[in-house]
Design a protein that fits this description.
By secondary structure, the chain is an alpha/beta fold. The strands form 2 sheets. A 7-stranded parallel sheet has the order 3-2-1-4-5-6-7, sandwiched between helices. Strands 10-9-8-11-12-13 form a 6-stranded parallel sheet, sandwiched between helices. Helix content is about 40%, strand content about 15%. It has 2 domains: about 210 residues, 3-Layer(aba) Sandwich (Rossmann fold), CATH 3.40.50.2000; about 160 residues, 3-Layer(aba) Sandwich (Rossmann fold), CATH 3.40.50.2000. The chain is globular, with a radius of gyration of 21 Å. This is Glycosyltransferase family 4 protein. Keywords: Glycosyltransferase, Transferase.
C-alpha cells in the first residue's frame, strides 16, 4: 500500500514535523511511504528521517529556486491564498503559488492513502482530491482551538473525508459528535516515539527545560513569570528554552525585565530534543492549549519528570498527576512555581516520578502506534465495523 503524508513544511522544526517523521519511518517498514511537504526552504530537513521515506515538496523557497521566478512564481508568492480560510492558524504561510501547487498535486497524486496533517490541508483534500484515494485528516490541534470560521469549514468538508484521526480521546468525542450521521470514521491515535535507546537524565543538573515554538500558544510568558518566583528562592536553578518563533524578542525582553538574565537562556532550535532533555532534571509545559504534547512523552522516556499546566487537551491524557508528573490548574502561576520548588526540594520524589514516567512512555512506542494506524487503514479499505 502506498501512503502519502502531506505536511505544511517538513523542513522546519516542531512537534508536528517530529511526529510525522516518527510515524512515516515506522510505516515505511511495512508500506511504500512518502512525505510531501508543501514548502521547502532549506536543502535538508531540520529533523532526521529514515532513508526508506521519500521526501518531496511542492513549492521551493530556497534561494536557488529564484531562477524560476521570472515565470510568475514571485508574484504568486505575494498574493494571499484563496484556498485556505483566513482563520486557518497558518494562513499567512500559504499563498497563490501554494494554492496552484496543491490543486495540481491533489488532482494528480498517485497514492492509495493520503494523510493530511492540519485543518487547512484536510479541507483542501476533501475539496480537491481525486477519486479513489482514501482520505485521512489528522488533527494536531485540539477541537476548541479552531476559530469559528475554520470550524464552519470543518463542519462542511470533513464529512467528505474517509476518516479523521485525533490525538486525544477528548477530541475523538468532539469530532465523533460533529460527524455523527456521516460515513466519516473517527479514531483516536496519539503520537509515538521510536523504539530505540535514548539518553537518560541523571537528575543531577539544576536545569529546567522547555521546548517548542516561541509563540503565544506555548505560554512562555507564563513560564517566565513562574520561574521568576522560583529564582527568588532557588537562584542556582537555570531555565533553558529551546525553539524559535515570532515572540522571541518579546520573551527576551520580558526575561530581562524580570531580572532573569542570569537564570534563563534562549537556546534556539535543536534537532536533538532528547539529548537536551537528558541534561535537564525537570521538563515544563506552560501552553495555553496542546493537541498532544510530544515533549511530555519524550521527557518521560528520558527519565525526566514533567510539570504542566492542565490545559486543553493533551497533558491530562498523558500525565497522571502525582504519579509520573504534576498537573497544575491552568494559568495558576503561583501554583506552578510551588510545584517546581516542591520537586527541586525533593530529589526522591523527582526520581519516583521519573521512574513512573518511563513506564508511561512505553505506551507510546511507535511500533504500537503504527499498529493502530494499520488497523484503521485496514478498517477503512475493507469496510469493517470500527
Amino acid at each position: 500500500m502506498k501512503i502519502s503524508i502531506l505536511i505544511m513544511n517538513a523542513y522546519g522544526m516542531g512537534g508536528t514535523v517530529r511526529a510525522t517523521f516518527n510515524l512515516a519511518d515506522e510505516l515505511a517498514k511495512r508500506h511504500d511511504v512518502e512525505v510531501v511537504s508543501v514548502f521547502r526552504h532549506r536543502n535538508r530537513p531540520f529533523l532526521p528521517h529514515s532513508d526508506q521515506v521519500r521526501l518531496t515538496h511542492l513549492v521551493d523557497l530556497r534561494p536557488e529556486a529564484k531562477k524560476w521566478w521570472r515565470f510568475g512564481f514571485a508574484s504568486r508568492l505575494e498574493k494571499p491564498s484563496t484556498l485556505f480560510h483566513p482563520e486557518e492558524r497558518a494562513f499567512s504561510n500559504f499563498n497563490a503559488e501554494s494554492d496552484r501547487a496543491l490543486k495540481k498535486y491533489l488532482a494528480e497524486m498517485q497514492t492509495d492513502v493520503l494523510v493530511t496533517t492540519r485543518a487547512g490541508l484536510n479541507i483542501a483534500a476533501a475539496q480537491l482530491a481525486r477519486e479513489g484515494v482514501t482520505l485521512v485528516g489528522q488533527e494536531h490541534l485540539h477541537f476548541g482551538a479552531h476559530k469559528p470560521g475554520i470550524l464552519e469549514d470543518i463542519r462542511t468538508w470533513y464529512p467528505k473525508l474517509d476518516a479523521v484521526i485525533t490525538l486525544t480521546d477528548a477530541d475523538h468525542t468532539e469530532y465523533a459528535r460533529l460527524l455523527d450521521g456521516h460515513p466519516t470514521r473517527v479514531y483516536a491515535i496519539g503520537n509515538g516515539l521510536p523504539d530505540t535507546p535514548r539518553p537518560q537524565s541523571r537528575l543531577e543538573n539544576r536545569v529546567v527545560l522547555a521546548a517548542g515554538r516561541l509563540v503565544k500558544v506555548k505560554g512562555y510568558d507564563r513560564l517566565l513569570d513562574a520561574f521568576a518566583k522560583v529564582v527568588e528562592k532557588r537562584p542556582d536553578w537555570k531555565l533553558r528554552i529551546y525553539g524559535d518563533g515570532t515572540q522571541g524578542e518579546k520573551l527576551s525582553k520580558r526575561a530581562r525585565s524580570l531580572g532573569l538574565h542570569n537564570n534563563v537562556a534562549f537556546m534556539g532550535s535543536t534537532s536533538d530534543v532528547e539529548g537536551e532533555l537528558a541534561k535537564a532534571s525537570i521538563h515544563v509545559i506552560t501552553s495555553r492549549f496542546e493537541g498532544f504534547g510530544m515533549t511530555i512523552v519524550e521527557a518521560f522516556a528520558a527519565g525526566v519528570p514533567v510539570v504542566s499546566f492542565d490545559c486543553p487537551q493533551g497533558p491530562r491524557e498523558i500525565i497522571t498527576s502525582g504519579q509520573d508528573g504534576i498537573l497544575v490548574p491552568d494559568g495558576d502561576i503561583d501554583a506552578f512555581a510551588d510545584a517546581l520548588l516542591s520537586l527541586m526540594d525533593s530529589p526522591d520524589e523527582m526520581r519516583r516520578l521519573a521512574e513512573n514516567g518511563k513506564e508511561t512512555a512505553l505506551r507510546y512506542r511507535i511500533s504500537e502506534v503504527a499498529d493502530r494506524w494499520d488497523e484503521a487503514f485496514a478498517d477503512l479499505r475493507l469496510g469493517q465495523t470500527p
